[in-house]
Automatic annotation (TrEMBL):
This is non-specific serine/threonine protein kinase. The keyword Cytoplasm does not apply. InterPro entries: Leu-rich_rpt, Leu-rich_rpt_typical-subtyp, LRR_dom_sf, LRR_N_plant-typ, LRR_R13L4/SHOC2-like, Plant_RL_S/T_kinase. It comes from the Eukaryota. It is a single-pass membrane protein. It catalyses: L-threonyl-[protein] + ATP = O-phospho-L-threonyl-[protein] + ADP + H(+); L-seryl-[protein] + ATP = O-phospho-L-seryl-[protein] + ADP + H(+). Keywords: ATP-binding, Cell membrane, Glycoprotein, Kinase, Leucine-rich repeat, Membrane, Nucleotide-binding, Repeat, Serine/threonine-protein kinase, Signal, Transferase, Transmembrane, Transmembrane helix. GO terms for cellular component: plasma membrane. Belongs to the RLP family. Residues 11-49 form the Leucine-rich repeat-containing N-terminal plant-type domain.
Length: 1111
């Protein structure tokens, strides 16, 4: 027997030494005494039985051991406790651990590099009572053999992110289990209903997994349960009403699932509940007051981010133990119940993001324990009740952002000595920031006033807020200079005041703010240079002073600030050159914005040193010379904007190394090389602007390889040859502009694949052939603008356009022919601009055109349309409403990065108005035009024409209209240009004609006396109507009632009308008599210089006569 015991002892000693041999690092020397100089029972962490023969406990927790767990651990047959937690053990758990039949405690938690799975042999540890393994990298599933360990009382397998699979159903065999914690793993599948058999279970935590399905009602059988946590899973369905039977439950946490329905009323039976957390589900309905009356021990109620509605129950005010009440992001309405003021133990209150109305109850003054009050994004209104809030002695945080609070900030606050954080932005507060604010808030650390209507200066007394860390007062009307005293707030870290009317210089005293990390004063009126003292801001990572009047040079020291990541000095008055010192190898700058200044000279070659740069924006300056090849060293660059400078020469091939580029804009310069071949390497490009240069050659076929492009602008160059069909392979394209080049050949059919386009501009080239793009597949949710004017396109109007959601269509100045297709029922309602000028279209205008209710600019002039104008033209609803708005709300190509719309997108279309040709880059609501001139329309002008009250430009000239001009024309009171010339209209000119600025009724058959208001126009406006009389023509009493122009200047029918335009109202022109008027008029006509002075502009074909008194 003695010999057998000696052999067993030798086995234990050998097993321990074998374990030691697997340990590679022992920084604390925990195993230093594990050697033959002493008995193993005296070794560190080892405990033996009473006879000192066998190891019963091995506790090596938190010894920072690094190494493998030896398989010899399974030879310690008498072991009851094994604690290897919180070390750096790696590798797999040895399967021999299952031989430890006497093991009761096994702790392996906190070995983050432990891998493999929990061995199935664990089921051999039949005496195991406490098994804990967490914060490891073990994987696989929880072994079902754990069901054999029926002595288990605590099973914690938690925070092992690679552990997945279902929860074994045979865990229900562990009838002694009190704690089951399987949280923070990646477990999947449904909750086993059999877990309801664990009658001794007190804690069930399955949170933060990927469990799905409904909560099994069988969990209500866990009569001993104190804590049920199923949070952060994917559970669905309602909350089982049977959970109300868990009478001992203290914590119910169902946060962030997809539960629906209402809160079961049976939960009012949970009279011992302390924490009820139902945050982030899809629960809804009203909360009844009855449910809450019995929950007298409730300390935390979290109902955030659900769909609860109705009023907040007044009965919540009876929960005297409540410490945290969070009802954020629901649909609660009505007023805040005053009963909440009775919650004397409440520390945290969050009622944000509801539709609450009214004010904050005065009873809140009784919330003596309150530390944080969050009421953001509601409809509360009226003044902020500072008097009520001042009576809450321990209040630390006031969060009232995004309400409708109004009124002024009081000149003197009560004492808020405990308040450290106050956010009252996004309200309607007025007045100024009180001078004594720091006296009332002596411990304030963070304060936000942004998006209000505050005005006046920042008070110099702000220096008394000695603990101030963050101050935000953006988007107000705060004016005056920045107080230099703010430089005394030594703890200041964040300073943000963009969008105000601050003036004066940047105080050099701010350079002493050693903790400052961010400055943002964009969109103010600050002036002067950037102070040299700012070189001391060594913690600064964000400096933004865009859109001010900052002057002087760009300081070189900005490149040496060790933490500066973001620099935006765009849209200022900076001058001089860029200092090479702005770029150095130690810089961590990610973004530099120097756009829209007056910087000049060459871009320094040292720019290549700033290898961390991701965005570089130098556009809208006066840089010259070439792009330095060292730009190619900025291999992290994603955005490069050099637009609108005077850069020239060839675009360097080194830019082809910038493979991370997503945005490249070098338009509006003087580059002269052919289409850059290096662009082929930049496959991540999403936007490419090469427009307004002098690039030559053709567009390469490989451009189709740039499959991520969404914006491509090549307009206003000298590109020639055909459009490559491969462009159609870039199916992500949203904007495509190749206008104003020398491109030839047809438009490729492959453009039918560009279904995401919202702008297609191929205008002003020499493209030919028929338009065969199939627009039927284009995205109907995106309104597209198509510009194909000034080409040589032929063929009929493409029928597939009926399936496109058009907004602008310009086919002007081509050779299209045939009639517009009759498309019954087609009315692409987004269409606002429809231009077909100078083609060869024939036939009548089909019905669908007159049903385009948003159409406001129509130019069908210089075609061969015929027939009568129909009565249904009064369906042009946009033209029936007068708008004086000049807001370019329909311009989706808004200015970006300092570009106007034309520069940025090459979005433009031409309009031939009476007396001028206009190029427009947007559609303002007030700009309306109908031009049907130079066609073959006949018959009377329909009375429905005079219902289009929103018209400002109307041209029906050079047709064959007959009948009279209806007195209803007086309804067109917004009209500015009117041209009915060269028709066959008869009868008198009606009285009450709108006071247009340009009028041409010449060469009709009008007769009778002129209405008095016509006297302000030149006679040319009425030439060719021999039966008219009265000013400005000959008096009706004359024996020969002919037009002064036609009788005095025969043969000038066309040239006279085409040379005279509208005259400003300030021109004084005295007519003494008919003969005197004719003499002066002939003098104007025969003297080009005098005619220019009178009319203020050169002659333009098809222009109207000058007006003596235009609007």
């Amino acid at each position: 027997m003695l010999q057998e015991q000696a052999s067993d002892s030798l086995n234990d000693s050998s097993a321990l030494l074998d374990f030691k041999s697997g340990i590679l690092e022992d920084p604390l020397g925990a195993l230093q005494n594990w050697n033959d100089t002493s008995t193993f029972c005296s070794w560190s962490g080892v405990q033996c039985d009473g006879l000192q023969q066998h190891v019963v406990s091995l506790n090596l927790s938190s010894f920072e051991l690094k190494g493998l767990i030896s398989e010899s651990i399974g030879s310690l047959y008498s072991l009851t406790t094994l604690d290897l937690s919180h070390n750096s053990l790696f590798g797999a758990i040895p399967s021999t651990i299952g031989t430890l039949k006497n093991l009761t405690i096994l702790y392996l938690t906190g070995n983050i590099e432990l891998t493999g799975s929990i061995p199935d042999s664990i089921g051999g540890c039949t005496q195991l009572k406490d098994f804990q393994i967490g914060l490891t990298n073990i994987s696989g599933a929880i072994p079902s053999t754990l069901g054999n360990c029926q002595q288990l009382e605590t099973l914690r397998v938690f925070s092992n992110v690679a552990l997945d699979g279902p929860i074994p159903s045979n865990l229900s065999l562990l009838q002694s289990l009190k704690v089951l914690d399987l949280s923070n793993n990646t477990l999947t599948g449904a909750l086993p209903a059999d877990l309801g058999r664990l009658q001794q279970l007190q804690v069930l935590d399955l949170g933060n997994n990927q469990l799905s399905g409904e909560i099994p009602s069988q969990l209500s059988q866990l009569s001993s349960l104190l804590d049920l946590s199923l949070d952060f899973n994917q559970l669905t369905g309602p909350i089982p009403e049977q959970l109300g039977l868990l009478s001992n439950l203290r914590v119910l946490n169902l946060t962030q699932n997809s539960l629906n329905g209402s809160i079961p009323e049976q939960l009012q039976l949970l009279t011992n509940i302390r924490v009820l957390n139902l945050t982030k589900n899809s629960l809804g309905g009203n909360l009844s007051s009855e449910m809450w009356r019995n929950l007298v021990h409730l300390e935390e109620l979290h109902l955030d981010s659900n769909n609860f509605q109705g009023q907040i129950p007044t009965a919540l005010g009876d929960l005297g133990s409540l410490k945290k009440l969070k009802l954020r992001q629901n649909a609660f309405s009505g007023e805040i119940p005053p009963s909440l003021g009775a919650l004397g133990n409440l520390t945290d209150l969050d009622l944000s993001t509801n539709t609450l109305t009214g004010t904050i109850p005065t009873t809140f003054a009784n919330l003596s324990a309150l530390r944080m009050i969050y009421i953001r994004d509601t409809q509360l209104s009226g003044p902020i009740p500072w008097g009520t809030l001042s009576q809450i002695p321990h209040l630390e945080e006031i969060m009232f952002t995004g309400n409708q609070f109004n009124g002024t900030l009081p000149l003197t606050f009560a004492n808020f000595s405990a308040v450290q954080k106050m956010e009252i932005g996004f309200n309607q507060l007025t007045g100024s920031i009180p001078d004594g604010i720091c006296d009332s808030f002596p411990n304030i650390r963070e304060v936000s006033f942004q998006y209000n209507h505050l005005m006046g200066p920042i008070p110099p007394s702000i220096k008394n807020c000695t603990k101030l860390e963050d101050i935000v007062f953006s988007h107000n009307n705060i004016s005056g200079p920045l107080p230099s005293t703010l430089g005394e707030c030594a703890s200041l870290q964040w300073l943000e005041g963009w969008g105000n009317v601050l003036t004066g210089p940047l105080p050099p005293e701010y350079g002493s703010l050693k903790n400052l990390t961010a400055i943002n004063f964009d969109n103010n009126k600050l002036s002067g240079p950037i102070p040299q003292e700012f070189e001391n801001l060594l913690q600064l990572f964000h400096l933004s002073l865009a859109t001010n009047n900052i002057s002087g040079p760009v300081p070189a020291f900005l490149g040496s600030l060790p933490r500066l990541l973001f620099l935006n000095l765009g849209t200022n008055s900076l001058t001089g050159t860029i200092p090479p010192g702005l770029f150095n190898s130690s810089s961590v700058l990610l973004q530099i914005h120097l756009d829209s200044n007056r910087l000049e000279g060459e871009i320094p070659e040292q720019i290549g040193r700033a290898g961390s740069l991701q965005q570089l924006k130098f556009h809208n300056n006066r840089f010259n010379g070439s792009i330095p090849s060292t730009l190619g060293d900025l291999t992290n660059l994603t955005t490069l904007f050099l637009r609108k400078n005077s850069l020239s020469g060839a675009i360097p091939e080194s830019l082809g190394l910038l493979v991370k580029l997503t945005g490249l804009d070098i338009g509006d310069n003087h580059f002269t090389n052919e289409f850059p071949s290096f662009l082929r390497n930049l496959t991540n490009l999403q936007s490419l602007w090469l427009s307004n240069n002098s690039l030559t050659g053709g567009i390469p076929e490989w451009i189709g390889e740039l499959g991520n492009l969404e914006y491509l602008s090549l307009g206003d160059n000298n590109l020639e040859g055909p459009i490559p069909a491969q462009l159609g392979d870039i199916t992500n394209l949203t904007y495509l502009s190749i206008n104003n080049n020398k491109l030839t050949g047809p438009i490729p059919d492959s453009f039918s694949q560009l279904t995401e386009l919202v702008l297609l501009n191929l205008a002003a080239n020499s493209l030919s052939g028929e338009l065969t793009i199939d627009f039927s597949g284009y995205n109907p949710s995106k309104n597209i603008s198509v510009f194909l004017s000034d080409n040589n396109l032929t063929g009929p109007f493409p029928k597939s356009l009926q399936n496109a959601s058009l907004e602008i269509l310009d086919l002007s100045n081509n050779h299209f022919q045939g009639s517009l297709p009759d498309l019954p029922g087609w009315a692409p309602t987004p269409l606002k601009v429809f231009l077909l000028r100078s083609n060869s279209f024939t036939g009548e205008i089909p019905s669908w055109v007159w049903h385009l209710e948003y159409l406001q600019l129509i130019d069908f002039s210089a075609n061969d349309f015929e027939g009568r104008l129909p009565a249904e033209m009064n369906n042009l609803k946009k033209l029936k409403v007068v708008s004086n708005s000049v807001e370019e709300s329909d311009n989706r190509f808004e200015p970006t990065e300092g570009f106007d719309a034309r520069q940025f997108t090459h979005y433009e279309y031409g309009l031939h108005l009476k007396g001028s040709f206009q190029v427009r880059t947007s559609v303002s609501a007030s700009f309306t035009s109908l031009d049907l001139s130079q066609n073959a329309f006949a018959g009377d002008i329909p009375p429905q024409m005079y219902e289009l009250r929103g018209l400002r430009y109307l041209n029906l000239s050079r047709n064959a209209f007959t009948g009279d001009i209806s007195p209803a024309i007086a309804n067109l009171d917004a009209l500015e240009h009117l041209d009915f010339s060269h028709n066959r209209l008869a009868g008198p000119i009606p009285a009450g004609l709108p006071s247009v600025g340009v009028l041409d009724l010449s060469y009709n058959n009008l007769s009778g006396a002129m209405p008095g208001e016509m006297s302000r126009f030149f006679p040319a406006s009425f030439a060719g109507n021999p039966e008219l009389c009265g000013l400005p023509l000959a008096a009706c009493s004359d024996s020969v009632p002919t037009s002064p122009v036609s009788s005095a200047l025969p043969g000038l029918e066309s040239s006279l009308a085409d040379d005279l335009l509208s005259l400003d109202a300030g021109m004084a022109f005295v007519v003494g008599s008919a003969i005197g008027f004719i003499g002066v008029f002939v003098l104007i006509v025969t003297s080009p210089r005098l005619r220019f002075l009178v009319c203020f502009r050169p002659s333009i074909p098809d222009s109207s006569a000058c007006s003596l008194d235009p609007k």
